[in-house]
Amino acid sequence: MASPRLARSVIAVALSASSAFALTSASAVTPTPSASPTPSPTATATASPETLARFTARVHQAMKGTTAAHVDYEIQVDGVGTIARSPTRLSAPASNEKLLTSLTLLNLVGPTYRYATTVSGTANLGSDGTLDGDLVLTGSGDPTLTRRDLGAIAHSLANVGLSHVTGRLIVDDTRYSHTTIAPGWKRDFVPEESGTVDAFTVNNNDWRSGTAFDADPTRANAGLWRTALRRAGITVAGPTVVGRSPSTLVPLWTHQSRPLSAIVEMTLNESINFYAEMMLREAGYQRSGHGSLATGTAAVRAEAAALHIPIGTVNDGSGLSYADRQSPSTFTALLDELPTQPKAYQTIFDGMPRSCTPPGTLENRLCGRFHGLVRAKTGTLDRISSLSGYTITDGERGVVFSFLLSGIRNVYTANARIDATLRALINTTA
């Protein structure tokens, strides 16, 4: 495991830069993972036991009145020590789970990875624009694919000369299993909180409603694809078939998504459950050759074990599951390790919401002088609130923290006490 001081020193420099330059842009103020910044003498100095006691008293005072049955946290202050309450107790982490999912997929494929949706033929395209065979679209699990993208793909095929297909229209969605609802999910989470997971998704798989569509949206999405082809002037004589593509194919066109770094940043900043669930399946695919709930969660557990991150129960990628179980120590260990992970650090740091900064989930929290001084992943379910991330004190000491509160009677009160604690830490010059 990485040295906790390394994480806190790196983040202290990053957040100091953020404050100094008024957070003009994430890329402009965040250090590269390979950098070895030297923290200020104040930040590296070892504080006295009395200083740790003062920090601890401030935290305990600020956390009073959370309305939570369980108030668990771990706070590491560079050069001071650790302030904790039940840091290894397991509880539902809500959307903090997205940090584990993001780290896993980024370390498997890297931030420049792009999902590639391919269109192929079972024969060569004739000089007259006729494909004497089947037209095959192979889904890649791109969570960002839209109707507009389908239209652009169809027009690109028309531009390379395709006008008529004598055979079938095949859509291959076999990259992932169709199981979306995880243990611990409410039945109405699909589609209210996440669209159905599928290797060929369109418009987040929430463009249509109904039990049949939610169970398997591929055929309806294939209908959108056929319509896009028709509007581009391409006719397909045969029926639509959903299933595995033939073994021999002639590539015609490839549509690439935005880089994974951009998708992860949106997932974390806006807490997009559907993207996280799709990313979990892709992690499973990359590790085992097939994407499913089981292979995805296995990939997360394997990554945590490799990085010596203490992990509890993983049931999904988004944290919607009330049966997920993590501890504050899970996330402080992850955040401590993160600066040593060159494939993941920059993207996750940039993607975590910033205090009082739209459009992220912290846009209405920690405003005023605390604007931009906190980068953290939020998490909210019924009676659950979590927040894990980084900040810096006025004394330029880096702070890594994780709060997991459960059994909450009033989430606004709970969040207010977490924010009060962070303000108390930031306001410290020691």
Shape: elongated
Give the oligomer, counting copies of the same chain as homo and different chains as hetero.
Answer: single chain
Distance between the termini: 27 Å
The sequence of SSEs as H and E is HHHHEEHEEEHEEHHHEEEHHHHHEEEH
Low-confidence spans:
20-44
Structural class: alpha/beta
Number of helices: 15
Q: Share of helix among residues? A: 25-40%
The order of strands across the largest sheet is 2-1-13-12-11
User: Hey, roughly how much beta strand do the residues contain?
Assistant: 15-25%
CA-based gyration radius: 24 Å
**Record field, number of beta strands:** 13
Provide mean pLDDT, rounded. 92
Main beta sheet: strand number and arrangement?
A: 5 strands, antiparallel
Overview of the structural elements:
By secondary structure, the protein is an alpha/beta fold. It contains 15 helices and 13 strands. The protein has helices at 4-20, 26-29, 41-44, 49-62, 97-109, 147-159, 189-192, 211-215, 218-231, 260-270, 273-288, 293-306, 328-337, 345-351, 411-426, and strands at residues 70-77, 81-85, 116-121, 130-131, 135-138, 164-165, 169-172, 235-236, 240-242, 250-256, 375-381, 384-392, 398-406. The strands form 3 sheets. It has a 5-stranded antiparallel beta sheet, sandwiched between helices. Strands 9-7-5-3-10 form a 5-stranded mixed beta sheet, covered by helices on one side. A hairpin with a 5-residue loop joins strand 12 (384-392) and strand 13. Helix 5 (97-109) crosses helix 11 (273-288). It is elongated and about 85 Å long.
